[in-house]
Amino acid sequence: SHQSNQIGILVPFFFGEYFYKVLSHISQVIPFPYELVLYDAATPEIKSRTIQKIFGEKKLNGLIVISLPLLKEEAFLAMQSELPLVLLDNVHPSFPSVYFDNVMGMFHATQHLTKMGHKRIALINGAHEDPFHLAVAKNRHEGYRLALDMAKIPFDPDLVFVNDWSRQGARFLPHKILKMKNRPTAIMATSDLQAV
Question: What is the per-residue pLDDT for 3?
Answer without folding.
Answer: 65
